[in-house]
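Sample pair:
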Amino acid sequence: MEYEYTVKVCARLRAFRIEAGLTMSDVAERLKIPSPLYALYEEYELVPHQIIPPLCELLNMSPWYYLTGMSDELSPPFRANG
């Protein structure tokens, strides 16, 4: 069960990064973390809690959606720009 959750979270992260038109190196640089560490987050490691808010802001994804894959009226998967 935990493995399935991790796979889904990593896939959401990768999909939103690609949607944002960013490379893994771009995201790592903006988060001020090593590129190999960020690559682990898209492969099989969960993102530490302190990185989730800036990561989600960078990728225009709500933290709720990142963690659960579900949206609600208060926390849609994408925030409106502007």
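The CA atoms of residues 6 and 46 lie 7 Å apart.
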